[in-house]
Design a protein that fits this description.
32% of the residues lie in helices and 22% in strands. It is of the alpha+beta class. It folds into two domains: 223 residues, no CATH class; 191 residues, no CATH class. The strands form four sheets. Strands 2-1-5-4-3-6-7 form a seven-stranded antiparallel beta sheet, sandwiched between helices. Helix 1 runs antiparallel to helix 7 and helix 7 packs across helix 8. The mean pLDDT is 95.
Length: 557
């Protein structure tokens, strides 16, 4: 009997995971914006009535880890304002201080009722290419308050009793640069949640409500047990780590400290960010949901065995981030870049702390930035992120040209961009010599460049242009990022990591992302691997001779 209950729980667990993935397919295939259809910048989750994650798709870590915080925030808001959530209602919000990320991430949540009883919530979060504000694509290099970043929407019924709230929809569409795209993306989000609603009801029809509820409790507890076993393989103790953002904004170049004390004990992990800097007048602040998402991500990546990601895991990670700090900002401090950049540095700070406990598990630093590019003109805006190098790790080189840590998006094909926007790409390749060196080298960054075909506004929000991705266990730092503009007269200007600039026709924007740090002493790297990197155009002979003392010129010819 017990074996059957466990088997039933496994069937329900994987049915819900599959359903979350199916929701994501529905969203991506019916969306309008390239940011979703091409980059897959969206996430889908199924949660129970207590805001506990039952299942999530393999989507965006910063979305997924913040979703339970966001659902609790939305339900608290509805309760405080006397708003009842009924069958056929759908809530929409992008308020970062409630939903847990930034304004571009529009959260859509729908309750699922079965025979008149609330059983779960289906939810998705999608990054809109533009939500208004002073800057095309809405992520700013210089914002000093949230209102400069775009339209802020508190939790509102975008659908009530199955009917679209036209007044709320008009308010949203009247404040964005591409209303037809936003409308298409919203319809895709609604379709994704309807897919989830139908799937959950069908699953309960097959299993029965009582068996479904019992199965959820069983697999959550099993995940908690599996997670506890992982913690028992880690050395208990307190560990401290810190890292820095290079600048708060285009206007403020002062570094911002992210500091964390990590405590491993009693089959759980506690992360205390009390020593981090206070919130700043720049867009790099994060809301609490982002800090939770980055913390849970960093802890989970250090597990040795496969553990399901649901509340059985999430409940074991305790995060303390004081209100008013850069990792738990309060209204009206801006947060657009905190979601994309500070989240990366939170992971780095945790890795630095836990490297002292588990030097064989923690990789060298990855590129440390999403390298955000926002471009636009009258009536249009586009957003993309560009990958970099992943850090070297035990037994393996880092990965070349990938999105790392808190993002899991895909490449935007240049053919699609050239078709729809007034830009012409001139370069897209791996950046040679950008890796950190070691027994296991870091991954290479990317060089991506385009020319403007008409006057456009471009904004860069990036990091790691001065503070290089660090190596571990004797590995070297990686080459830092750099952002350049080459004017039509061939004059080249180096941009700040947070920078807004106007491009005239013929001007070229050049993005060179950082590599990943090296792992282990460079002199231990086999000659044949060095030779292969040279043959593949990732490493020049001169750079090899400079960084690998165990080889000579004859070895690499």
């Amino acid at each position: 009997m017990l074996r059957k209950r466990v088997l039933d729980a496994e069937l329900v667990k994987y049915s819900l995971i599959y359903l979350a993935e199916e929701m994501g397919v529905a969203l991506r295939r019916s969306a309008y914006s390239p940011n979703i259809t091409e980059r897959a910048d969206h996430s889908c989750v199924i949660l129970d009535v207590n805001s506990r994650v039952l299942a999530q798709a393999e989507h965006i870590p910063v979305h997924l880890g913040s979703m339970p915080v966001g659902l609790r925030g939305i339900l608290n808001y509805l309760d405080e304002n006397g708003i009842e959530l009924k069958e056929g209602d759908v809530i929409l919000s992008n308020d970062p201080y409630i939903t847990g990320t930034h304004l571009n991430d529009v959260t859509v949540i729908q309750p699922v009722y079965y025979e008149g009883r609330l059983v779960v919530y289906v939810a998705n979060k999608a990054h809109y290419s533009d939500v208004g504000g002073a800057n095309p694509a809405s992520i700013s290099a210089e914002a000093e308050e949230i209102y400069q970043e775009g339209l802020l929407i508190p939790p509102v019924k975008i659908v009530s009793n199955g009917k679209v709230n036209r007044e709320a929809l008009s308010l949203l569409l009247s404040n964005v640069r591409m209303p037809h795209v936003a409308l298409g993306d919203l319809h895709a989000q609604l379709a994704a949640n309807l897919t989830g609603v139908k799937g959950v009801k069908k699953l309960i029809d097959r299993r029965g409500l009582r068996n479904f509820t019992e199965a959820c409790e069983i697999f959550l507890e099993q995940t908690a047990e599996d997670t506890g076993a992982e913690y028992r393989s880690m050395p208990e103790g307190e560990y401290y780590g810190e890292d820095f953002l290079e600048s708060a904004s285009e206007l403020l170049d002062n570094p911002v400290r992210i500091a964390v004390k990590v405590t491993i004990e009693d089959e759980q992990v506690k992360l205390d960010f009390s020593a981090s800097d206070t919130q700043v007048k720049g867009p790099v602040n994060t809301v609490y949901g982002v800090t939770v998402a980055a913390s849970t991500f960093a802890v989970r990546t250090l597990f040795r065995k496969q553990v399901s990601i649901n509340d059985g895991f999430y409940r074991t990670v305790k995060v303390y981030a004081p209100e008013g700090s850069v990792v738990n900002a309060t209204r009206p401090y801006p947060v657009s870049a905190g979601n994309v950049e500070t989240s990366q540095r939170i992971v780095d700070a945790i890795y630095r702390a836990l490297h002292k406990a588990m030097p064989d598990r923690v990789p060298a630093a990855s590129c440390g930035s999403m390298n955000n590019i926002m471009i636009g003109g009258p009536g249009w805006a586009f957003y993309e992120t560009i990958g970099g190098g992943y850090g070297g790790r035990t037994g393996k080189d880092g990965v070349d040209g990938v999105h790392v840590n808190m993002t899991n998006t895909m490449n935007t094909p240049i053919e699609m961009l050239e078709k729809y926007y007034p830009i012409l790409f001139t370069t897209y390749k791996l950046r040679e010599n950008s890796m950190g060196h070691g027994e296991y080298r870091g991954g290479c960054g990317i060089e991506r460049a385009f020319k403007a075909l008409e006057k456009i506004t471009a904004t860069i929000v990036g990091e790691r242009t001065k503070l290089k991705p660090w190596g571990v266990n004797g590995g070297t730092e990686a080459k830092p990022a750099e952002y350049l503009v080459r004017r039509s007269n061939n004059q080249v200007t180096k941009l700040k990591p947070k920078h807004r600039i106007t491009l005239a026709p013929g001007d070229e924007l050049i993005i060179r992302t950082a590599g990943g740090g090296g792992y282990g002493p460079p002199e231990k790297r086999p000659t044949e691997k060095i030779r292969k990197d040279i043959e593949n155009g990732l490493l020049t002979p001169d750079e090899a001779l400079k960084n690998y003392p165990n080889i000579n010129q004859e070895d690499i010819l």
